[in-house]
Structures are given as C-alpha cells and as structure tokens.
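subagent[fold] <- orchestrator: predict structure for attached chain, return tokens only, no commentary.
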Amino acid sequence: MTTTPLISDSTGDDRPPTARFFAFDRHIWKEIAHLLINLPMSLIGFVYTVFMVALGVGFSVTVIGLPLLAVGLGGSRLLGRLERARARSLLGMRIDEPSPLSLSRRDPGFFGWLWSAVKDPVAWRCVLYEVVRLPWSVLTFAVTLVGLIVLWPVLPFLVRTLANADRAMVRGLLSPSDELERRIAELESDRGVVVDTAAADLRRIERDLHDGAQARLVALAMGLGLAKEKLLEDPEAAAAMVGEAHGEVKLALQELRDLARGIHPAVLTDRGLDAALSAIASRCTVPVKVTADLRERPAEAIEGIAYFTVSELLQNISKHSGARNATVEVWRSKGRLLIQVQDDGRGGASLDGGTGMAGLAERLGAVDGLFVLESPAGGGTTVTAELPWRDREGAGKRT
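subagent[fold] -> orchestrator:
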C-alpha cells in the first residue's frame, strides 16, 4: 500500500493526489469514509434545517418567530463548522473559518443581535448546503457502497470523482469568500471611523458654542441688565456699558460665523471648490497657489470632505512646515477626485507625527478614498488624496 502526500498549488486550492489503478492508499480510504458518512450527516442536517425553518416561519406571526429563526440559524453555523472540520480531516481541504457574526452598531442590544443573526449570509449558505446535500449524499452513499462490493477495480476513480464534487460543494457554500470577508471587515472599521469622527465633530461644535458664543452672549445679557438698572441713575455709565455690549455682539457674531464656516462654509455651497479653496488659501500664512480643473461639481458630501482635507493640510503648512510657498491642485480623473497639496518646507511629516495626518487618512479611507504622504526630511511635503467622484444631483456644467 502506497501513500501519496497532499499537494497544494500556489493559489492555495486543494489538489488531491492523482488516483491510480488499485491505489487504495490512506487518502482513498478517507474519501470512502467521507462519502459513507455523508448520508447520516446529511439526514441530521436536513431534518434540523427543515425543522428550524418551519418553526421560525410558523411562529413568524408571533413575537418569538424571529428569535427562534435567529437561534436556528446559529445552529446552522455550528453545523457548517462541523462540516468544515470533517472536510479538513477526511478530504484534506485547507478551508478557513468565516468571520464571526458581526452585531449591528446601530443597535448593539437584543434587536441588533436579532437583525444580524437573521440576515447572516454564512448561516444561510449553511442552510442551502444542508438542503442540496441530501439527494447528493444518497447518490454518493449508494455508489460507494456498490463500488465496495462489485466495482472494486474502478472504485478509486469513482471515489475520487465523487469526493472532488464534494470538495467543490464545500468550497462553494461553506468556505468564506476572502474578498467579501475582507471588504466587510473594512466597512465595519470604516463605519466606526465615520461614527467616531461625527461624534468628535459634534463635541467640538458643542465646546465651541459653550466656551465661545454662548459665554459671550451670557456676559452680554448681564451687561445689558446692569445698563438697564443704571439708565436713570447714571446715563453716562449706562451708555458706556451699552457701547461695550455692542462690541460684544460684534464678537459673538464673528464667532458664530467662524463656527458656521467650520461646519460648512457658505462659499463652498454657493460657488464650489475653486472659490472655497481660494478663500482658505488667502487665510494661510504661506502664499498658496490654487489650481482647480473641474468642469462639474461632485456630490456635496465629497465636496465637503475635499474642502476640509485641504483646509487642515493648509493649517499644518501654516503651523509646522516653515515653508515659503505652497500649491493646491484639484482635478478629476475618470471616476476619482484628486487633490495634491505641496509645500517647500522642512518636510519630515508622518502619519503618526501628531499633525492630524492619521486622522485625515482614516476619514478618506472611510469613504473609499486614498491618502498618500511623501515628506522626506528637508525636501518639502507632498500630500496626494483621492476621493470617489459622485455626481451631484441636478448639477450642470460650470460656466
């Protein structure tokens, strides 16, 4: 009796050893065992699946229907894990476990678990596997059993053919989709970044209102109250207090304008990226040349991200670069909005240097964008950012 090692090609796919005439090695015997065990296993899986689905659907008109279905799908996941373990042991397959069930971030409680469990694609693929495998397992059991009795000379070829079909079924329904799993993980991470960023922005706005305009307006109300009390007793003092209050009003209005500009500047809404970037470039302490080659305007969300990305990069240039000149270029290339910001400063910037670059990279990544930083020491800094181009509804050509 000979033994032949399991071969795996460069792509990671399983290639069982080539069956030879009368080659009843350990691999063939494992495959025979797998095909014979298929029938009892498929009977258990089929009965469980039909009972679980029928129970969930039958009670769907009550409050316990969906929870029962969710629990049943969890059991299907366990059956899928058992079948993957059996495929590894008897078919020699190299198959990873899928990602664990991801709970809903919107509602991390019971309803979040319920919704995530009911729409779990891994569990539903296991359900489909158990349903389609029953007739196949009846066929493989019968052929293998007959082969052991009367088709002994050609049994290795029959077993290898049937086992390869089983491998294809396991690979198609029970193995995780690497690209899909990776993308789901990325989207989960990106969604967390978006939520955290939005929460941080709300906290910043609340802090700016509380410490700035709100505090100034409270002081203004107190000053006007004192002026009202002194209006008859000391008109000159009251007039002076009203004058101070007038100055406070101007400062409060300016703070509110600055805050509104930080949320979404009016010039961006009215005139687009070209004018908005020119406006923030004029406030930079370093001379900035802005070039925007955009015949159309992207969606508002993409336009806003582009604006605030350039705004933060220009703030970094003002504070940290020591540059004498800087440039901002914005253009569209196929389905992407490209932004490049350069300066001739000292360089040496990094994503973990405390200048907010890492935060910018995370924000762009959250919308399927890219952020590339080149900043050799003494050689200036170049930041290239890409965002997906999304058309603005009702947008026309710029004049």
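orchestrator: received. Logging for downstream: The radius of gyration is 34 Å. Residues 99 and 181 are 7 Å apart (CA to CA).
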